From TrEMBL:
Entry annotated with the keyword Transmembrane: yes
Keywords from the named record: Membrane, Transmembrane, Transmembrane helix
Record's protein name: Uncharacterized protein
Transmembrane region(s): 16-37
Organism, as annotated: Enterococcus canis
Highest taxon of source: Bacteria
Length: 43
């Protein structure tokens, strides 16, 4: 029983880390896109 609870916590932790990675990736993408657009001679 305790082992199953630990497994569930591990899964939760992995999900949290993957969501954090996703958020950071999206944030970095928008940062790069913003700088690319701001430096673009088209504007």
């Amino acid at each position: 029983m305790n082992h199953a609870a630990n497994e569930k916590e591990g899964i939760k932790e992995i999900q949290f880390l993957s969501w954090g990675f996703l958020v950071i990736s999206v944030f970095c993408f928008f940062e790069l896109a913003y700088y690319y657009i701001a430096a673009s001679p088209l504007l």
